[in-house]
Amino acid sequence: MLRLLPNRPLCRGFAVAAAQKKKTIADLSKEVSLKGKNVFVRADLNVPVKGGAVKDKTRINLSAPTIRYLLDQGAKVVVSSHLGRPKGQVMEDKRLTPVAAVLEAAIRAPVRLAPDSAGPEAAAFVKNTSAGEVVLLENTRFHAGETKNDEAYAKQLHEVSGADIYVNDAFGAAHRAHASTHGITKFVSHKVAGLLLDKELTALGTIMTSPEHPVVACIGGSKVSTKLPVLESLLAKCDTILIGGGMMFTFSKAQGYHIGRSLVEEDLVPMAKEFLAKAKAKGVKVVLPRDFVVAPDLEEASSSKALHADVASYKGDGIGVDIGPLTVGDFHNEIKDAKTFFWNGPMGVIEVPRYALGTDAVTRMAAFLSQKGGLAVVGGGDSLVTVQKLGLFDKITHVSTGGGAMLEFVEGKVLPGVEVLDNK
Ligand code: 3PG
Questions:
Q1: Atom of ligand 1 nearest to the CA of 59
Q2: Are the C-beta atoms of residues 126 and 160 closer than 8 Å to each other?
Q3: Which residues pair with 241 in a beta bridge?
Q4: Is residue 227 over pLDDT 60?
Q5: Ligand 1: does its nearest atom lie under 6 Å from the Cβ of 404?
Q6: Catalytic residue among 59, 95, 141, 364, which?
Q7: C-beta of residue 57 within 8 angstroms of C-beta of residue 414
Q8: Which of 42, 44, 45, 46 is the best mutation target for the ligand 1 pocket, counting ligand atoms within 8 Å of the beta carbon and taking the most?
Q9: Which domains does the chain possess?
């Protein structure tokens, strides 16, 4: 059985988050009968597809409960999603065909893939579908109007679906003001959150509004530039911030250490310095890696040549590829006593198994903390891959389906796809 949040109540000591103000399909079904109604569901079925096969089914599986709920209420469900970034062109490898097959298995009901998301053919396709069945509209991004939030395309999407009820369950795309996440809502009477979106907003909302302390965040990934805004926002919420991944080297440089040929954003070294000073002034503890794994290059073939290096004394010209074992120990010491843990971004180059050990360790720590009653929220594509690889999905309080959306939410930004929904 799919479970995003384990049955331990989220509100054990955590107040229900303010972000949970949006009306949900459960709220709506108390007001309006869904039986025989067409319902438009925007899901985020943007999953990795290789050679025609879905490589990670997580987003599809997690979209299933909302669709199943609507089917059980007797609705005709019209699902839409983007896949990749085809930029307004029809691309054969970006068709939703493999996604439809996986969705069918996840909801245990037939899914009919429409030839398009707009136009008379797609409209006729939906019309010929019965209540209790699911239509998946073809990739919305085959139309340039999708990402432009074009009103004419949004209207067409609405017309094809024949729906007066709109459900947004696409947390991963909620930071995009696109036709299917935003523009279409202008044409419907009801616009509500799906079960997945609601769970995401609840878990992340708790971190933002009422986290139990100590709050520890771990931020990784290759670039400081994409993570500085979230780091700034976390300064106001966290007791401790752990920094790993390729971005650690910009911080090492800011501390005056030699980093060889490791990834660095030179222009951000002063900002990294500034961030460390700000954290100190606010009394937020920042834990930077004291050791790392260094390799001659990023190729898997060279991974047997990788060595352990000390941040403070390194003099070589290798490339940093993972946090080291002493740092893993330091991070463990911080995470084990946290009450709330937020994590985004890998600790190393996880594509090479030997360089994924730091990320694996943090994933296990998130599971350990969740199992002892803490709240752990983990997100970002690489974290999701690792959680699934280690089989720990059900052991972590909340694994977010959002990458960019999760970061923007924690940065305190308004998500257009959420803002536009009806309030409770
Ligand atoms: C994601 O994968 O983060 C979402 O599906 C959004 O995709 P996008 O970054 O292409 O808008």
A1: 5
A2: yes
A3: 217, 286
A4: yes
A5: yes
A6: 59
A7: no
A8: 46
A9: 25-194 (3.40.50.1260), 206-411 (3.40.50.1260)
Ligand 1 pocket member 380 (CB < 6 A): no
Q: Residue 381: what pLDDT?
A: 85
Amino acid symbol at 17? A
> Do 130 and 110 contact (CB within 8 A), yes or no?
no
* 214 upstream amide cis, omega within 30 of 0: yes
**Tens digits of residue pLDDT in 343-386:** 999 999 999 999 999 999 999 999 999 999 999 999 988 888 89
CB 246 within 8 A of CB 263: yes
Angle in degrees, 0-180, between the axes of helices 224-235 and 269-282, rounded to the nearest 10: 10
pTM for the predicted model, two decimal places? 0.90
- Determine how β-strand 38-42 pairs with β-strand 165-168: parallel
| Distance (Å, whole) CA 201 – CA 18 | 9
Given a contact cutoff of 8 angstroms between Cβ atoms, the answer to whether 106 and 45 are in contact is no
Q: How many CA atoms lie within 13 A of 296 on its CB side?
A: 6
Q: Say whether pLDDT at 334 is over 50.
A: yes
3-class DSSP assignment, residue 348: coil
Write down the pLDDT at residue 132. 77
